[in-house]
Design brief:
The chain is mainly alpha-helical. The chain has 2 domains: 46 residues, no CATH class; 131 residues. It is built from 4 helices and no strands. This is Mitochondrial calcium uniporter regulator 1.
């Protein structure tokens, strides 16, 4: 089964956005499993073109048999055959209607499944976005705390430097006074 997106590129993208390699691979693996499961469910309910053609050929051969019977019985039992033919037409119409209803039902189920998967993927993306936003906020908070701490240390160093300069100046003035 082919995937229609680059799983390695998705792993790299997740790694670039703060996930570890293992986390990225697990997320991509989960997405691939979900997609495969959903595709299996969709394929399970589908009718192949070959099966549809076989059913059509069976109906066509049945119609051909009815036509031959009509020609044989036309002279003797024309009215009975005509009523039987009408019954068959009604049955065929009912079968056709049932088949169309089933096709509509299968399409609706498939659309529902696809919409559910789209919703799940959107929710997953929203959760990832929220996690990234929270991570960005934490980083911004930590950077602001570090800047504040740096400024505090700067001020402390300036205080100690000023104290040291004044102390040296006081000692120098004391020696100058003694001489």
């Amino acid at each position: 089964r082919r995937l229609f997106f680059d799983t390695h590129a998705l792993v790299c993208l997740l790694e670039e956005n703060g996930f570890t390699t293992q986390q990225s691979e697990v997320i991509v693996s989960a997405l691939v499993k979900i997609m495969n499961t959903n595709l299996d469910m969709i394929y399970k309910d589908m009718v192949t073109k070959v099966q549809q053609e076989i059913a059509l050929q069976q109906v066509m051969s049945h119609i051909g048999g009815v036509k031959k019977d009509m020609i044989i019985l036309e002279k003797s039992e024309f009215s009975a055959l005509r009523s039987e033919n009408e019954k068959i037409k009604l049955e065929l119409q009912q079968i056709k209607k049932q088949v169309m209803d089933e096709i509509t039902k299968v399409r609706a189920d498939n659309k529902l499944n696809l919409n559910l998967e789209k919703t799940r993927v959107k929710e997953l993306h929203a959760q990832q976005d929220r996690a990234l936003t929270q991570t960005d906020r934490k980083i911004d908070t930590e950077v602001a705390d570090l800047k504040t701490m740096l400024e505090t240390h700067k001020l402390d160093n300036i205080k100690y430097l000023a104290g040291s300069v004044f102390t040296c100046l006081t000692v120098a003035l004391g020696f100058y006074r003694l001489w």
